[in-house]
Amino acid sequence: MRLLHLLLAATVIHVVPQVSSQECGKILTNFLGMFTSPSYPENYANNLSCTWTIKTDPGTKIQLRFTDFEFEDHSDCRYDYLELFDGPSSDSNSLGKFCGKTVFDHEDLYVSTGNLMFIRMKTDKADNFRGFEATWIAVDQRLVMPKRSLRRRQNDGGCNKRLTGKNGILTSPNYGKDSTYPPKSNCRWEIITDSEHEINLNFEDFKLESHSECKYDYVTINGSQINLREKYCGETSPHQKNSQRLIKSVGNKLVVKFVSDTSKQERGFKARWWVTKKSSVTPSECGGELSGEKGTLTSPSYPRSTLKQIICTWKITVPEGYKVRFTFQDLDIQNHYKCSTGYVQIKDRSKAGLESLGVYCGTILPAPINSKGNVIEVGFLSDKNATTRGFKAKWQSFYESEETDKDKEKDTPCNSVLRQPNGKIVHNIGSSCKWTIELPSNKRAILSVTSIQLTDDPTCYKETLQVKERSGTTLFKTCGTLKPQPVISFTNRVTVEHIVRERRLERSAFVLQWESVDSDAENNIFDTGSCLTSTLPGIRFKSDKSSRKGIEPDHIPWMVQLHSSIHCAGAILSPEWVISSAHCFIRMPMVTEWLVRAGDPSFFSEDGSEQIVNIREIFFHPTYNRKTFDNDVVLLRLKDKLKFNSRVRSICLPDQNTVLNDNQECSISGWGTTKYLGKPREKLFQVFPKIVSTSRCNQRKIYDGKVTENMLCAGRSGHDSCQGDGGAPLVCVDKDRYFAAGLASWGNGCAGKHGVYTDLRKQVKWIKSVMKQNN
Fold first, then answer.
1. Among residues 80, 108, 142, which one ends one of the domains?
2. Are 595 and 565 in contact (CB under 8 A)?
3. Contacts of 64 (CB under 8 A, 6+ apart)
4. CDD domains of this UniProt entry (predicted)?
């Protein structure tokens, strides 16, 4: 369901119970939950007046998110609307009034100042729509860190819309001759048609606050033939500034954005849009004009021979500010001297004229050809004796930052064996390729990606950059524009591989650097003497009759609370490093969204012994899988070092060869609720699960094969972690040495089935590598 982002902090992922969709209002009192408009997802009824009151525990605030929203639209939300109030009634301050098809995402939070929020829904006598679905969660008043303020949505005037159909009108909020648009507006219109049509846009009235660089109030347009980075303000409309009669899309989508600040407001704008049939020729014809973001092109009669003399010319145009990448998918043209009897020629068109980018014949596929501007010409010549297939190609737009020929670096040849101690791999071609870095036997490599632009894909299936050890162990895998953190190899030989299965619009290029270091280089931050290797007074690590259901210890010095709009737990590895679970941070990866709290066994109160610090950097495991929770581990580098004392100390890491026996008793602590949908515990709580074999955990009646080799199981009746314990360490003892054997990752119930933990024995090399390189 869409509300799962609320529970990513949970070791156990549950479905939040939903208030009946037939209820028109209710008092909601759980720690978290979900509610909807009456009859949702069917259309709501006419003449409704519904109210909901969310009431949570004293000392908490309420964070509310919309996961679906569709009401009748109006610039002032006069007819059907939903309004939020910061308090117990409609007399409280309004947090926002909403209507239309407003698009919300998981980052849009509406936060109360206290533990009460009032929601009112009203509909009129005509027109019915789907309504809304919303989720809420209670968070501590002192530690709440909302990701965004409410200003983003308050003055959108219902202007965030997705528009389809044949025609329509766009206006700024409150548009009229005697009116001005409101301050702090943030509007986005997305006009979409089918692939056979294009969109026309004409501004009939335009008056915004003037500025030479349009810093304050402005309009931007994306998807047209005008500059996508240009801002428009003052009294000169976008098409007038570009000396055009109207604005045309180059594909089947136009995006218009409008932003205003708090200073000066003007009349605004009115624009009319309509769709028309594309006039461009189909790729099978001989010549014509093609435009858009991507397309395909073939020679006439392909894949059959033409058997006649023919000359064709196509002109391909992509949006201003983009370039064209032309890729041959098939090429079969007689390979005569200098391609004299047939060829394909690519030319770059600019203000200076035409420049040839290459002439091609034969059967060998050339590397993709990149233009210098946004227009190319493709010429095809074949004589009457040709018996070959011709060609098939695809073209697509891509964005590339300005760089001079002098700045450009040559590509590193594919299948190279690179033996220099320091160097880089440069790859701009965009095709699959592999390189081997081989250093002397007493050296290892520190590898870092300094630039990357690959196809953006959540699974990295379509296009991947990966680095592997000789043994096959993956050091990292990435795609899109995500630069992984630098890693250090375990041996002197690694393989770098660029795998292309399906490229999209994005530029395919990257730069990877390496630097050699001594294999025996060590760092004292891993010295086990710095972690707890002796018995702690007052801390129990074995259960007895009095502790079978758990205890509340005075303190456990390696435990930390991690606070954002959700909460998790973590363990201290050194004064500067904390370890936790990746699933806590994957939806909130910004360091400014989190606080780390150490030395305090209480969740809601303070006694002066706590240390509260910010995070400097977040390091995700390079092969973390958010679907299976494999390698569910993250390292947090702190902005300020913790001060070690009797309440703040580090926990040891296991060795790779540490043995965990079946039925071995360990412990786990946290502040998470042990009751489904319950409130976090006030005090730190400790339970004593036992190690369970992976084979038993993977039995059909338990987890049915979902526990991987990078996980371990632990639990016993009534002993397991639950919501909010994500990232808490599973601690075991070996000869009075406390070590974190695992991290709370996932499970199936609060103290129900066994809990599943990330096995830190499998993560030690990666942990030490990241800490060493970034210490």
1. 142
2. no
3. 54, 84, 109, 110, 111, 112, 117, 134, 135, 136
4. CUB, Tryp_SPc
Please report, for the domain that includes residue 471, its CATH number: 2.60.120.290
As a whole number of angstroms, the distance between CA 632 and CA 621 comes to 7
CA distance 218 to 232: 5
DSSP state of 529: G
Report residue 635 as tokens.
Answer: 């390292």
Q: Kindly report the CATH number assigned to the domain that includes residue 744.
A: 2.40.10.10
Task: Provide the token pair at 318.
Answer: 């992509």
The secondary structure of residue 767, as a DSSP letter, is: H
The pLDDT of residue 107 is 45
pTM assigned to the model? 0.41
Whether 271 and 290 map to the same domain: the answer is no
Instruction: Please choose, from the candidates 612, 611, 615, the residue with its C-alpha nearest in 3D space to the C-alpha of residue 638.
Output: 615
Q: Is residue 538 part of a domain?
A: no
Q: In this structure, what DSSP letter does residue 143 have?
A: T
- Could you give the number of structural domains in the chain? 5
Amino acid code (one letter) for 268? G
600 appears as a binding residue in the annotation:
no
Assigned token pair, 532: 């707890």
Compute CA distances 158 → 80, 168, 186, 255, 536, whole Å: 11, 16, 10, 16, 60
111 and 189 both lie in a single domain? no
Q: Which residue has the higher pLDDT, 254 or 475?
A: 254
Which pLDDT belongs to residue 143? 54
The answer to whether residue 709 sits within a structural domain is: yes
How far apart, in Å, are the Cα atoms of 701 and each of 461, 515, 695? 32, 49, 12
Residue 544 known to bind ligand: no
194 is in an annotated binding site: no
Q: What is the pLDDT of residue 615?
A: 93
pLDDT by residue (tens digit) across 710-725?
999 988 764 445 544 7
Q: What is the mean pLDDT of residues 643-664?
A: 85
Give me the phi and psi of 761, to 5 degrees please. -60, -30
Same domain, 236 and 291: no
269 and 351 assigned to the same domain: no
Do 564 and 671 have their domain in common?
yes
User: What burial letters (b/e) apply to 317-351, b meaning 16+ CB within 10 Å?
Assistant: bbbbbbbbbbbbeebbbbeeeebebbbbbbbbbee
Q: Is the pLDDT of residue 658 over 80?
A: yes
CB 62, CB 138: distance < 8 Å: yes
Asked if residue 40 has pLDDT above 90, the reply is no
Is 624 found in the same domain as 728? yes
Query: What are the C-alpha distances in Å from 775 to residues 577, 635, 637, 727?
Result: 9, 12, 9, 22
Q: Which residue type occupies 169?
A: I
63 half-sphere exposure, CB direction, 13 A CA radius:
22
Q: Residue 375: inside a domain, yes or no? A: yes
- Residues 692 and 606 placed together within one structural domain of the fold: yes
233 within 8 A of 181, measured Cβ to Cβ: no
Range of the domain at 78: 25-142
Asked if the model's pLDDT at residue 148 lies above 80, the reply is: no
User: What are the C-alpha distances in Å from 387 to residues 304, 308, 518?
Assistant: 8, 10, 61
Average pLDDT over residues 670-688: 65
What residues have CB less than 8 Å from 80, skipping those under 6 apart?
A: 44, 71, 72, 99, 122, 123, 124, 127, 129
> Parallel, antiparallel, or unpaired for β 131-140 and 32-36?
antiparallel
Per-residue confidence (pLDDT) for residue 284, from 0 to 100:
46
Q: Mean pLDDT across the chain, nearest whole number?
A: 78
Q: Is 383 annotated as a binding residue?
A: yes
Task: Judge whether 168 lies within some domain.
Answer: yes
Average of pLDDT values for 456-482? Answer: 79
- Using 50, 70 and 90 to split pLDDT, how confident is the model at 474? confident
Are 609 and 743 in the same domain? Answer: yes
* pLDDT band, very low/low/confident/very high, at 221 (cuts 50, 70, 90): confident
Mean pLDDT value across residues 509-530: 64
Asked which of 518, 543, 568 is the last residue of a domain, the reply is 518
Which residue type is seen at 44?
Y
